[in-house]
Amino acid sequence: MSTTPGVTDCTGGLAVVGAVCIGALLLTLLCWCWRAFKTFILSEVWRVDLKKYGGWAVVTGATSGIGKAYAKELAKRGLDIVLISRSNEKLKAVAEEIEAQYGRRTMTIQADFTGGGSIYPAIKEALSGMDLGILVNNVGMTYNVKLQRFHEVQNSEQIVNCNMLSVTQMTRIVLPDMVKRGSGLIINIGSATAAKPCSLISLYCSTKAFVKYFSQCLETEYKSQGITVQCVAPMVVSTNMTWNCPVNCLVKSTSDFARQALNTVGYSSYTNGCISHGLQSVVFGLAPGWIKSLAYLIKRRRQVKEDLHEE
Ligand SMILES: NC(=O)c1ccc[n+]([C@@H]2O[C@H](COP(=O)([O-])OP(=O)(O)OC[C@H]3O[C@@H](n4cnc5c(N)ncnc54)[C@H](OP(=O)(O)O)[C@@H]3O)[C@@H](O)[C@H]2O)c1
């Protein structure tokens, strides 16, 4: 059977396009696997010495959850720790725990990050003259009620102050000395919810999108000056914010998360912090928007039922 020359050319062309596409896809997959291997596996073996950044680390929101776990892990790796949170009592307890467990020095600063710009001069004063190598901008909050439409949110100004203003102002406090020394590490805790728009937590996930974008901008601005800026975007970690849900292969414990996430310093400027959250984030990224909306609507329905039951 004979084929016309035009049809043969066309089939040959399509085969080349197909081969190029498959090749590009395989190359992308290979790059992704190498990045994941480097960030989550290699980093377990070759850890960056965090003491090279300076003697002290500042952690905001350091009395529970992810912040407390970062503070303890940093102390374990040889840094002295400045803890900042609202409750003096809790600050004292965590400071004593760190001193007893790791023999590091601690300092505590009581501050409420919902308070707006007026709180920062006192924090700056308290931190002045210290050898600050690391800042962990961890403090963050979400709605008073679990899930809400934006017009129903009561604490929107507090969320903006706590999740965004704290990141910019704390960074402004530590950066000048880091620039002078030509060394420093700033870790900003974002959230995997910032990867794509999410309904019923729109303000929360938008503040976290700001954290991601701001971190990436700073990283390009200060990398050449010896300052590393990393954004860590967790999925679910078992803390007060997530109602201390049980730890399993998807939900991380705070200590495990902080240890693995700190290993990724120097390997990745944007990370989900651990391999489990990295894989979940890929799946989350592929899911069409309506699936996520459906999940939220189901949760919302459950919540309304619970509230009615409580009444
Ligand atoms: N847990 C997760 O699954 C998850 C997922 C993605 C992202 N994140 C992010 O991770 C960060 C930490 O979350 P978490 O789950 O560890 O929260 P958490 O368990 O609720 O802990 C929050 C910490 O911040 C302090 N804090 C809260 N509001 C404050 C304020 N207005 N001023 C000063 N300190 C304040 C709290 O201490 P005091 O009460 O003593 O002040 C506590 O130490 C947040 O930025 C959050 O958005 C968490």
UniProtKB/TrEMBL annotation:
SUPFAM superfamilies to which the protein is assigned, alphabetical: NAD(P)-binding Rossmann-fold domains
Transmembrane segments: 12-34
One Gene Ontology molecular-function label: oxidoreductase activity
GO cellular component entries: endoplasmic reticulum
A Pfam family the protein falls into: adh_short
Assigned keywords, A-Z: Lipid biosynthesis, Lipid metabolism, Membrane, NADP, Oxidoreductase, Steroid biosynthesis, Transmembrane, Transmembrane helix
A GO biological-process term: steroid biosynthetic process
Name of the molecule in the record: Uncharacterized protein
Organism the protein comes from: Muraenolepis orangiensis (Patagonian moray cod)
